[in-house]
Task: structure prediction
Amino acid sequence: MLSERRLEVLRAIVQDYVGTEEPVGSKALTERHQLGVSPATVRNDMAVLEDEGYIAQPHTSAGRIPTDKGYRLFVDKLAGVKPLSGAERRAIQNFLGGAVDLDDVVARTVRLLAQLTRQVAVVQYPSLVRSSVRHVELLSLGPTRVMLVLITDTGRVEQRLIDCAAPVGETLLADLRARLNSRVVGRRFPDVPPLVQELPESFEPDDRPTVSGVLATLLETLVEEKEERIMLGGAANLTRFNHDFPLTIRPVLEALEEQMVLLKLLGETADGAMTVRIGHENFHEGLNSTSVVAVGYGSGDEAVAKLGVVGPTRMDYPGTMGAVRAVARYVGQILAES
Result:
């Protein structure tokens, strides 16, 4: 275990390196921070931190930089979440509050996160698997064609066209719509199939094929939408950090282009807790020079999806964590009110 003084020295090194982008020496530390000890003592503390693997010497200069292990200790023990200012909170509220639908909410969230953190923002669409049914609408588009519209509690809208074997009258459509909604509204998606499996039997024999066709389309929609969707923005921000990537940012960009990589990154985030993965803690080799800060968001107590940012390990962790948490909270409020 490191002493409190050495933890303070590590905190100062992380803060200075993140702020200046330059390796940090003992003389600079004693000049910038009230450590209460001599430069010789700070040099000794830095030697211990280096021996323990928390800082490293990048080249022959006298300065040191944090390692992944050092950043991890900083995040776990030393970094509070930096609260946003009142102006920043109002700006988030106003920007996200202008969204017109779920696609717009996600798009605005990506742009906002990228601007606030100056990192790459990643937002997962709310999962249907974790969603509840708000309403099922059935619309006649012709004698034998019906549109099924599925609306979730998170504002997600799914539309499917159904070609029926026989003409479908408005009376049947209205009856089916009413019975369907009475059974599924407010229900979680995984709970829907057993609630509707016997529904065709409650209709006249001639109408049962149509009812069965509508139900089959509804259930297929629930199954196929388990494939999640991701929106990414702010990749150009990485170009500001060229010197933070040992060789090139190309492996990072290639990793970010892979949908499954992003889904797995966010999937490692616990529903209610903020997750920070640093450097080699990331499973994908292309992201070993980055850190990921992510958290779940939702319209209630349970997260329906995740959002976060990807940037270099030399990151303003308190500020980034504060921004990610605040944006997630506001997105959750918007979904709850939509």
